[in-house]
Amino acid sequence: MPTLREKIRTLLEEYAQDARALSRALGIREKEIYPHLEHIRLSLKVRGQQLRITPYQCRLCGFEFKNRAKLHPPGRCPHCKQGSIEPALFEIRTSRGRGAKASSD
Ligand SMILES: [Zn+2]
After folding, report:
1. How far is the CA of 64 from the centre of ligand 1 (A)?
2. Does some domain include residue 105?
3. How far is CA 37 from CA 41, 50, 82, in A?
């Protein structure tokens, strides 16, 4: 039986989705998703994969949290000081060229 993290990985390899969608799919709370994502993000590097993040975005002014290192949602927008934040999307991509078998040429 796959572990929770394996299930999350499988879901994110299929398509990009936010933590709420993951929490619904897995039957756990949304805030429990983030520590798992953090762990998955670290473990992916070894596998030649990466966690792609479509950043959180302010619904009011459009500010994108592009340089946010943390995965859990920000409380409010630093630009307009409002708390209406569009959720980030997470997706697992296999990076090309690294860890792949060398071609014969
Ligand atoms: Zn804003």
Report:
1. 9
2. no
3. 6, 11, 26
